[in-house]
Description:
single chain, alpha/beta, Rossmann fold, 27 helices, six-stranded parallel beta sheet, 14 strands, 4 domains
Amino acid sequence: MLTIYQSHNLPTLFEGLNAFLGQKQDNPFQPLTILVPSLAIGRWLHYQWAQKNGVSANLATEFPANFMWHCFSQVVPQTPKSPVLSPEAMQWRLFSALDPQQLPQDDTFLILHRYLERNPHALGRWQLAGRIAEVFGYYRSYRRDWLDCWREGQMIQKQNRLDNGQLIEKPPYRHQEWQAALWQQLFAEEHHQQGHLLMQFYQQLQQDAQLIKLLPERLAVFTTVRLPPNELDFFRVLSEFIEVCFYHFNPSSQYWADSVDEKWLAKMQLKQPQRMALYDKGHPLLTAWGKQHRDTFRLLSQLSGGEQENDWLDDFPELEPTHLLSCLQHSIHELEHEEQATWTLQPQDKSIQVHSCHSLTRQLEVLHDTLLHLFAQDDSLKPQDIVVMLPDIASAGGAIEAVFGTVSTDRYIPWQLTGVASVAENSLWRAFEGLYRLSQERFTLSAFIDWLSLAPVLSYYGLLAEDIERCVILLEKAGVYRNLDGKHRAQISGDNSDTDDVHSFLFGLERLLLATALPSDYQQLYVGIQPVADIEASDFALIGTLCQAVSDIAERRHAWQQKQAAYLGLQQLQQDLSRFFSSQVGTRAWDNLNKAIEDLSDTFNVAATPEPIALSLLLADLAQRIAASAPGAVPGGVVHFSRLGALRLLPYRVIAILGLEDTAFPRREQNNEFDLLSQ
């Protein structure tokens, strides 16, 4: 049975969820499963469940796509535990196929050959493969019919329907021919086989009732924001065997699935005026910022179909428009969007405030004062009731720390950045990658000192933070500026005649080592080397450590572009991670990096890429995975600063939005030029 329960109030949805999952189960040890759109919603549900029931135990929150594949692997024989056509696996298979020596020299692939000529390095080819894999992922979610056509060797045609019902052909999609050829060559058959998984899943459950016990007795899908057609079909099938209930957050109690914004209507007026009657202008805030919710609402409306009794439940508590914010919410709830609508603003109404400030720092200062004022006015207001959202949270960390982190104790407000990688996580990755990357650059003294100052590096070499200053003094005394040695200088500059060791690390470290072996007053050249003066006995250990650190980097200078089987490169990375940074074992940073290496190894097992891979590409892939594994924004017991939209839907009492400059909001995402969906 499938039920859709909708409301504009998240606590109301939770009450319905609590009643649904609180029913007696045949197997009390089976986890209660809730599918959520984000970590934030999952964490909030655990908090609410513990508050309502005393403890949050045996409650599992998962993402819909992961749960769907897990069900397939449990029920359908010989289904791998992870998707074969993941974006990462497709990227590496495309990387091999895009080798200019392997790519057919015909007009179909002319665009790709031109791109590869402009970007001849392997990294450029790998990035191109990533962009193509991205659009293939879109098609697998939203246009499976296109992929079926490509498998049969057919091209997709754009069509418009005229008033008389006649279809007219439009210009063909750009980039379609080579995409269809690559898809047919690399992925068509596997995708076609996976396309039968849902049918096999259904048939297996029909034939063997014991398999149903592998599924949860009832499944809750909570506040889904994005619902691709393949997931929609999965839930429809699943509801024939277990109870499935959608808890849908809907900002309006009215039907608005056909609401579109004015710009879209204007384009439709020009292209297909006969279809104008099918759409409604709708509330401007909903049609501008609620497109995903609208599309999900439309799909759920189709999913319901009205075939089952009590399959659609509305629970919209009455909204009393007592202040400006509630008036706006009421207008959205009732779809009242008269252009000349007016509300009487009371002098004490502070429900919506707009502050004009000359910089982000000033915005934060005004926010801090405003929050202190709110705390003084309302004793029930707690820091966890407040969220601050910014379009670019990563670059705002310094300003937030300067304003919220440096105030006196009596003005201090507990706060935290959420949804960004911690300093410790960034430090380990920079330390690990720096082992290889530094030798590929000019290897300046400042870059080396920055790397040496990272906590994981300090720990490995047994240095203290205060030792760094003395290291700088020693290297500056030795005349170190840049480069490992003369050959490294020639390699970086491209000038094979410039092989002088002067001012390189080899030059400086030889001078320092010689100073440790000669009397302190010895100032003459020794075998052509001038020892550094005024070296103390306490410096000897530091000099040895500097030599070891530079040697460790120099050993890896040729590994960057060395091509070898992927598993050998990953073995080397794993060995270096364990050797240099074992002090980080058990930390979140270590776990993330170690998992990224293991996942990349699994990807190569699936992708079966025969081509030798340079270590630089493996590190580029790991960097991409580390960035993607940055912790999701989650609520907690303090004022949270998060990326705009990361904590959406959660019921905060105070919401502040900063940094809405025209260059930052609305965010201008660069479209993938290969995406046929945007044409």
